[in-house]
Structure formats: C-alpha cells, structure tokens
Amino acid sequence: MIKVLLAEDQVMVRQGLKAMIETDAEIKVTGEADNGKKAISLCEKQLFDVAILDIRMPEMDGIEAAKVLRSRFPHMKILMLTTFDDNQYVMDALKLGVSGYMLKNGDTESLIRSIKSALSGGLSLEDQVAAKVMPVLLQKQDEVSVDPALTPRERAILKCIGEGLNNKEVAERLGLSVGTVKNQTSQILDKLELRDRTQLAIYAIRHRLV
After folding, report:
1. Residue 8 in contact with residue 79, Cβ under 8 Å?
2. In DSSP terms, which residues pair with 2 in a beta bridge?
3. 3-state SS class at 2
4. How far apart are CA 124 and CA 107, in angstroms?
5. To the nearest whole number, what is the mean pLDDT of the chain?
6. What 8-state DSSP symbol labels residue 185?
7. Which residue from 47, 59, 46, 103 is spatially nearest to 79, judged by alpha carbons?
8. Contact predicate 81/104, CB 8 Å
9. Among positive and negative, which fits the CA dihedral 80, 85, 87, 88?
10. Could you tell me where the DSSP H helices lie in 98-177?
C-alpha cells in the first residue's frame, strides 16, 4: 500500500483529490493537512511514501514545507500541486529536488501516474508546466558543455533521466539491469557534484542532452 500525505487548504479540492487518488486500490491517503506546518507535524507522527503539497497554503506554503520535509525525511517523495503555473514556483520546487509538479486541473490518470513515477525515481511535469519551464532551463548559454568526465554510458543514462524516465525505464531502453542504472546514477551524481535525480534532469536539459 502506498501511503500518501495530502496537504491542500481548500477542503472541497482536497476531498476531490483524495477521491481521485483512491480510485487506485494500491494508493491510500492516510494523512490530510490544510497548511505546511500541519503537514510537517503529521510526518513526525507517521510514515508516508509520498507527500502532495499545494504551493499556496496559509501559515506555511508548500515550498517552505517541502524544504523542511526534504531535510527531515529525505526518503519521502514530494509532489507539488497548484493552479498557478508560474515559472518561479516551478524552478523553486525543482531546485528542492521534488519529484513532480502538477496542476490541480489535471486528470486522475496523470495524478496516479505521477505518484507511482515518484516512487520509481521518475520526475513528472505536467505538459503545461514543462512548456513554460523548459525555456527557463535553457536560458544559460554558459552551461552547454557536458562534463568530460562522464562516460558515453553515463551520458546516455543522464539523457534518459532528463526525459523523466525512472530506473526501470532507463534499464529497458539501454539494455541494462536496474541495479546497474542505480549504480551508474550514483556515480554521475558524484562526478557532477549534484544532490538528486531532479538536479540531474535539470543538468541534462540545460546541457542540451534532451
């Protein structure tokens, strides 16, 4: 069972999202909060696999809550949720290492897919969000050259990560084992001195690998 924390300050929206999520028998919303502080408090009392945080909430917003949760519960995956497709919100969330950024008007299938993708190490961006954030990621012209320390295989894996593929999907595309992909990804992180897959995805996009 995948245990989800859902933090959204509008009750009707939260109830609707919960109903959508729980159409999948493998997923259960086991915690609900209406602000970031309550979300953090819940995480201190029980374990969650995924936290879905609304960007704009009273007392503590989703970005601030995500910072705390990433620090205290590094193994928990975080998905950001909002009606605001503002570039800066997206960039702030991605820099934190969240596993996805979704708009509230998304469909049930996309929401469930994002939750499962996060647990598999994937990065999910709604099409509307991706269309706005890609130009921002590509703005810095001084970051085009890829680190020469990367091997051809590592570059291939990095390219797949930039496309949002999880470890299993990368392994299938490149004809490798999942274990090899995990080990190579760790090596890439060390070589590039990056923190997580989200930063790898941003690196891949900025360096024109995708």
Report:
1. no
2. 27
3. strand
4. 14
5. 87
6. H
7. 103
8. yes
9. negative
10. 108-119, 127-137, 152-162, 167-174
How many CB atoms are located within 10 Å of the residue 140 CB?
A: 10
The pair of three-digit structure tokens given for residue 26, joined into one six-digit string = 């493998």
Amino acid at 92: D
Return the number of other C-beta atoms located less than 10 Å from residue 25's C-beta: 7
32 three-class SS = strand
Report the distance separating Cα 210 and Cα 204, nearest Å. Answer: 7
pLDDT at 141: 46
Q: Are 52 and 81 in contact (CB under 8 A)?
A: yes
Q: Could you give the percent of the chain with pLDDT greater than 90?
A: 55
Comparing 56 with 210, the larger pLDDT belongs to 56
78 vs 73: CA distance, rounded Å: 10
The kind and range of the H/E element at 79 are strand 77-82
Q: Which two tokens stand for residue 48?
A: 């969650």
What is the tens place of the pLDDT at every residue in 143-162?
A: 456 677 899 999 999 999 98
How does pLDDT run across 96-128, given as a tens digit for each residue? 888 888 888 888 998 999 999 888 887 777 766
Report which of residues 9 and 123 the model is more confident about: 9
Judge whether 136 and 94 are in contact, CB under 8 Å.
no
Longest dimension (CA), the chain: 51
Phi, psi of 174 (to 5 degrees): -95, 0
- Rounded Cα distance, 162 and 174, in Å: 14
Q: Return the structure tokens found at 145.
A: 């050259």
Is residue 81 a contact partner of residue 20, using CB atoms and an 8 Å limit? no
